[in-house]
């Protein structure tokens, strides 16, 4: 175990509060490439499935608009997140940031957003893995029936075990399989010869305008987030990164750039091969796109690409959700039993195991679009708070009062833009999924009441602030 | 002047188990049960055709060819093509949803700030005027 007394957290030299007691911590073994792998690994699966539900909500053109609007939203997220994370570098990412910048109840909610967003993303990945294997065995003409639920359960349990055993092996595996999955997208793109429109890609015959009119563009923003959702997961590894101030902004921003390119390619290939009605409900759209080319080797490659992307994503999700839960347990926001580190593997093993039954329950009995929506909503609530958080952060500690690893430009424009795009996305989710939006809000309201009226009494007050910063303005 | 640190009560193992189970119950009751009972989820309308053809489904020759490569005939594809999101809504429902979201954030930020003042007071010392403590 490593000591993480405050001076080790961010190297900030400002006069500050007394150091807190020594605490158990995770190993610092990760570099910028691991951060990129963690971020893109979680998100790349969004190119293989889920994004196409945006086509279902508004048509192909609306989905492209949503793809780029969501790209702007996530550029704001990456800019804001890089500044805050490179300054508040501790396990739990946005959770630890909210704790230092906004306050305990907000931090509790952020912790839950992270856990729910990543757990539902993990569930979605398991669903796709099961469906993909079932479809592949059917298309290959293999004899016998495949129960996809068995593969869903196997995916969740195997990856939980891998995470239990150690973070370095887990994220190194992510790096390798993420690279293979990305190569599958690029290969598909080259194979369909985008420089020869009409030959394989038939946009002229398949693009149909806006089937839901202008409202469809707004509605498509709901699943447009799926192209990028989870890139902010890079911050969950803050306590395990060797140089947070360098690696986190570098890994996160290169991750967003990678995803912008991949999202555009994905949309172009998908909409040039499939009628929008089919594409809008497909579980494995890029695998289907490969089938439509008629190339068996490409179909096999995209099968493995999709499989690897879902596994990499689920792997990263377990890593992130368990670290947020671990951090909450360590701070007593959740029972302290969850705040334990494995004596041999140095992983938050109890937090990893706790979510296995929940993930299995949702995976085997819930439709994909609904688990994706739960994940998107949790992320969306987090982005809304992130926009408010950076404004509060700059007000409490203006530039020059503390060391920042990275200062994002044009403040407060990214925060205002992010808040506006979040508002648009709430309306987008309301269109078609309004009752699910209210169910999600009910969950967070009930959980907040439980925390404020019961759980917070177990939390040490002063120990929640661990950064070596001066007292915030206004307090 | 530093405020004496708040000493939280120790939580028994039973209490920890109950709290963990409560969190699980919150997830199941508010998120899983509504989906299981189909109280939440996608709002869609379905148009049914008795004997659909690619033309009657609004599919041109290229679209029809792609559907067929994917293993669909007009009868199988009709269910997918006829399914559309229902975007009709009441302004009252939209206003209520907006109120819930805005209210949630406002109350959370105000409550958090109250808790945060205690954290800062204990960590750095409390030099606020007495009437504000």
Automatic annotation (TrEMBL), chain A:
Subcellular localization: Membrane
Any Gene Ontology biological process: transmembrane transport
Domain of life: Bacteria
Primary residence: membrane
Keyword terms of this UniProt record: Membrane, Transmembrane, Transmembrane helix
GO cellular component, one term: membrane
Signal peptide location: none
Span of domain Amino acid permease/ SLC12A: 41-452
NAD as UniProt keyword: no
Transmembrane portions of the chain: 33-54, 60-80, 101-121, 149-164, 171-192, 212-229, 250-269, 301-326, 347-366, 372-393, 413-431, 437-453
Membrane topology: Multi-pass membrane protein
PANTHER family reported in the protein's UniProt record: AMINO ACID TRANSPORTER-RELATED (PTHR42770), MEMBRANE PROTEIN (PTHR42770:SF7)
The protein, known as: Transporter R00093
Lineage summary: Bacteria, Pseudomonadati, Pseudomonadota, Alphaproteobacteria, Hyphomicrobiales
From TrEMBL, chain B:
Keywords: Membrane, Transmembrane, Transmembrane helix
Transmembrane segments: 12-33, 89-107
Source organism superkingdom: Bacteria
Protein name (record): Uncharacterized protein
